[in-house]
């Protein structure tokens, strides 16, 4: 993953400032990573610049500037461009050629693909809250993923004993009927009640600091819908039962099916896994 763009320059160099600097800023903006400016007139920056040019760029005792690099999180560095020794206009043209090249476009496409954020990543980062097990044990719950694809996720708040206090369907555009069927096929018609479904809209600004930017990357509307399912037992008979998550580990694959059993049972397996 590319995590930084660097430009080695000097302020006195007309090949560097202003146009190469602003072009390097454009790369950083395209890739949504920070730009590191290494000015060889400042000795600490020159040391870093020399090392970068020596290892990955076009090195000579009095090397040409500017030199531009993209750096990866794993330490890999790619040299992108060296200024021309000829007229300033030649360096300018080489920048234009870089931006219109399929090389640059592919690099950017690959980076965006690798960097693609799914709804699941967003939910786990911003919509995953600490809570306590309700009606069962009072231990801490965690949000377990039951199902997901790029735009949807179904998660359940589960305690260490597998009791489910809440199931949440997160979606950019929720299909309530699908969610209803998803629940009914697992817990049964008797347990499911339309009244137990509740809808909420989440906006980036009500979550953590950078959520507003992050939400735009996964949702065109800048919103995420949550459909909550929590059972509210009324009769004494209903109060004896609880929703549980099967924790069967078969060949490394977790079953993750919801099932109903007596609330004080220590069984962790659904009917099919038993
Ligand atoms: Zn519990
Ligand atoms: Zn199971």
List keywords for this structure.
single chain; 274 residues; alpha+beta; Glutaredoxin; 4-stranded mixed sheet; 8 helices; 14 strands; binds zinc ion
| Major beta sheet, strand line-up | 5-6-7-8-10-9
- Radius of gyration computed on alpha carbons: 27 Å
- Give the count of helical stretches: 8
Mean pLDDT equals 93
What does this structure look like?
It is a single chain. The chain starts with a strand and ends in a 12-residue tail after the last strand. It folds into two domains: 113 residues, Glutaredoxin (3-Layer(aba) Sandwich), CATH 3.40.30.10; 144 residues, no CATH class. Strand 3 and strand 4 form a beta hairpin. The model has no long low-confidence stretch (mean pLDDT 93). It is built from eight helices and 14 strands. It is of the alpha+beta class. It binds zinc ion (2 copies). One zinc ion binds next to loops. One zinc ion (ZN) binds next to loops.
């Amino acid at each position: 993953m590319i995590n930084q763009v660097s430009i080695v320059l000097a302020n006195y160099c007309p090949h560097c400032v202003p146009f190469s600097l602003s072009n390097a800023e454009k790369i950083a903006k395209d890739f949504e990573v920070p730009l590191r400016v290494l000015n060889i007139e400042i000795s600490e920056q020159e040391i870093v610049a020399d090392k970068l040019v020596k290892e990955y760029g076009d090195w000579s005792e009095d090397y040409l500037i500017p030199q531009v690099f993209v750096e990866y999180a794993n330490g890999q560095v790619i040299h992108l461009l060296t200024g021309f020794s000829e007229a300033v206009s030649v360096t300018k043209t080489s920048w234009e050629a870089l931006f219109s090249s399929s090389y640059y476009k592919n690099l950017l496409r690959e980076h965006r693909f690798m960097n693609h954020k799914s709804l699941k990543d967003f939910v786990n980062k911003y919509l995953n809250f600490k809570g306590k097990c309700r009606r069962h044990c009072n231990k801490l719950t965690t949000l377990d993923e039951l199902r997901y694809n790029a735009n949807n996720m179904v998660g359940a708040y589960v305690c260490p004993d597998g009791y489910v206090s809440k199931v949440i369907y997160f979606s950019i555009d929720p299909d309530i009927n699908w969610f209803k069927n998803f629940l009914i096929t697992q817990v049964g018609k008797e347990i499911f009640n339309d009244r137990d479904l509740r809808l909420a809209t989440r906006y980036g600004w009500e979550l953590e600091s950078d959520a507003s930017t992050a939400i735009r990357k996964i949702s065109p509307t800048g919103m995420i819908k949550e459909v909550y399912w929590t059972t509210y037992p009324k009769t004494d008979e209903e109060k004896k039962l609880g929703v549980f998550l099967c924790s069967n580990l078969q060949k490394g694959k977790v079953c993750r099916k919801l099932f109903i059993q007596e609330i004080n049972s220590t069984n962790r397996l659904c009917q099919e896994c038993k």
